[in-house]
Write a structure and sequence with these properties.
Length: 123
Amino acid sequence: MSKVELLKQIYANPELVFEHLHPNFTLHSPGNSPIAGTFYGAEGIRKHFADFERLSNGSYKHDVQAAYLADDNWGMVVSVMEGERNGVSLDMFGFGLWRFQDGLISDHWEMLSDPAQWDKFWS
């Protein structure tokens, strides 16, 4: 399966990511908010996903904008991220940067079009 197809499947069903994680997987989430940090392995990504759900009261979602770019080493996905939390709205573009190693996902960076809006939403 191509890396583009893998990313499409993961964004359609995020649970699939756990079948493709490198043993040294690291997720990098930027900013200065409760959602920011570095998360390791399946346990780390599960915690991060749970924090999105919990802190947004289930309102957080991302909508892929049909931009999937990937080769054997790197991938990028463009999406719109939306949510409502404590009277603050989130509506911005984000970029998921993915690194592949040994055919598995070794790193994921959450990249933001508006870091200040992201921090305000999650804080």
